[in-house]
């Protein structure tokens, strides 16, 4: 009898901390580009078809009470669901934020979120973080005061929302302070920028491993992600350089949702550039609980396996600047060094002089140099003019669909410049070859005995 009571208690506690519930969402979204909207959350995504007049009605099985997003093809807005939400939404997608209206159970909280979002977004990130320190702090205080007034005026019907939102307003202020330190130098074009000694300190009392607040507050999510990467020496939002440090840090977290988000942000670490990608993949799989993330991880892993040294290279056949098209097959019998670039990419263009020197050095050898631009087709003339004006040598090609070009996707290219070396049989030598400015490239080319 005691054992049964203990099991019942666990079941009750589980249902309280992870309240699965079926809620009702209906409404009318007009002037959408596609007759669809999406509801997204942590390990949750639901695509909803709209009728011709924009109306819809759906029952959603939610995993948690907290913040989700409602998205059209061109707009998005946070939306709060409790386990007894029963709401109707109306909006015009051409002017989404200002026309968004809610009715029903949960409408008060969501109308508050919509108004709060408008207040917080009136000043763009660039405008906000470009301000000098004094003006920035003044603006942050102004934003917080406006939201405080809105909060005080709103007669919330959900006490749980009201309690957590009071703390979330503090998170908004703290996020802005944190982001200013990280972004002011970039937006103001100041190298080595540091805030003054009087700049407000980040609130170290904030618990950075709280599942409940992560599921409730976008501002808290931003803080958690920023602070995690602040403590991991990696490259932007990629940390495989120090995976030995990052993975144990992720495993040590109590919040599964935070773990999932970090794995999602690290998906591109399953890349040929990461010498330990197989271990990273297995570790990531062991950590995440989200089937969709597992699927993306596996897709990246399979793409990476496919471009290991010795594997046949993915194929291309793209427009040649000199006319016609050029395929990889047509270059068989020669080694091929490929530069994936774009006219808008500063680091790509910085490598061009070094690439031309390499071409001169290996002129007459059994190697061709191919530059594949992923410029948008509407920028074709800009690409063509640059190639002509700069008298760029080698084989100059334009990919057919930017980042979504088949060759680019099969090599899992997520950043440029990217250099690839293929042997005379069409097999991959190095899918992440050294840059032209790197002396290791000459060593690599010499090893091929061209």
Explained architecture:
By secondary structure, the chain is an alpha+beta fold. It contains 17 helices and 15 strands. Strands 10-9-13-12-11-14-15 form a seven-stranded mixed β-sheet, with helices on one face. Helix 11 (277-287) packs antiparallel against helix 12. The longest helix has 29 residues, at 159-187. The protein is elongated, with a radius of gyration of 26 Å. Mean pLDDT is 90; it is low at 1-17.
Q: Roughly how many Å apart are the termini?
A: 81 Å
Total number of helices: 17
Structural class: alpha+beta
Rounded average pLDDT: 90
Overall geometric form: elongated
Question: Can you describe this structure in just a few lines?
Answer:
This protein has 450 residues and is of the alpha+beta class. The protein has helices spanning 2-17, 96-99, 107-121, 125-130, 133-153, 159-187, 211-214, 218-230, 243-252, 256-265, 277-287, 291-306, 346-350, 352-361, 380-389, 406-410, 440-447; strands at residues 21-30, 36-41, 44-49, 55-62, 66-71, 76-81, 86-92, 101-105, 317-320, 325-327, 335-341, 367-373, 395-398, 418-422, 428-430. The protein is built from 17 helices and 15 strands.
């Amino acid at each position: 009898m005691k054992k049964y009571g203990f099991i019942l208690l666990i079941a009750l506690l589980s249902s309280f901390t992870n309240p699965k519930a079926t809620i009702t969402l209906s409404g009318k979204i007009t002037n959408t580009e596609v007759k669809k909207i999406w509801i997204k959350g942590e390990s949750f995504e639901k695509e909803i078809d709209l009728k011709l007049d924009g109306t819809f009605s759906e029952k959603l099985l939610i995993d948690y009470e907290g913040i989700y997003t409602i998205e059209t093809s061109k707009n998005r807005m946070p939306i709060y669901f409790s386990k007894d939400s029963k709401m109707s939404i109306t909006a015009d997608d051409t002017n989404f934020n200002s026309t968004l209206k809610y009715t029903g159970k949960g409408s008060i909280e969501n109308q508050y979120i919509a108004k709060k979002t408008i207040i917080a977004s009136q000043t763009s990130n660039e405008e906000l973080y470009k301000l000098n320190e004094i003006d920035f702090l003044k603006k942050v205080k102004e934003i917080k005061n406006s939201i405080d007034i809105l909060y005080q005026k709103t007669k919330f019907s959900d006490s749980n929302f009201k309690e957590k939102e009071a703390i979330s307003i503090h998170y908004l202020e703290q996020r802005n302070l944190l982001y200013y330190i990280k972004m002011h130098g970039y937006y103001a074009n100041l190298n080595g920028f540091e805030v003054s000694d009087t700049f407000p300190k980040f609130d170290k009392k904030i618990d950075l491993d709280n599942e409940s607040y992560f599921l409730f507050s976008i501002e808290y999510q931003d803080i958690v992600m920023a602070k995690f990467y602040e403590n991991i020496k990696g490259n932007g939002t990629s940390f495989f350089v120090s995976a030995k440090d990052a993975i144990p840090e992720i495993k040590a977290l109590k919040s599964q949702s935070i773990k999932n988000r970090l794995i999602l942000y690290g998906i591109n670490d399953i890349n040929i550039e990461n010498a330990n990608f197989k271990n990273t993949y297995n570790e990531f799989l062991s950590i995440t609980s989200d089937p969709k993330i597992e699927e993306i991880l596996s897709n990246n892993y399979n793409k990476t396996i496919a471009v290991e040294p010795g594997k046949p290279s993915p194929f291309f056949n793209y427009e040649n600047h000199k006319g016609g098209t050029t395929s990889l097959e047509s270059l068989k019998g020669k080694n091929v060094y490929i530069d994936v670039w774009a006219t808008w990419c500063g680091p790509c263009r910085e490598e061009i002089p070094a690439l031309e020197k390499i071409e001169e050095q290996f002129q007459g050898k059994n190697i061709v140099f191919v530059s594949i631009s992923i410029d948008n087709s509407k920028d074709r003339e800009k690409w063509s003019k640059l190639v002509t004006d700069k008298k760029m040598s080698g084989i100059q090609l334009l990919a057919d669909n930017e980042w979504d070009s088949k060759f680019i996707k099969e090599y899992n290219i997520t950043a440029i410049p990217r250099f690839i070396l293929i042997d005379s049989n069409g097999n991959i030598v190095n899918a992440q070859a050294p840059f032209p400015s790197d002396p290791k490239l000459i060593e690599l080319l010499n090893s091929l005995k061209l």
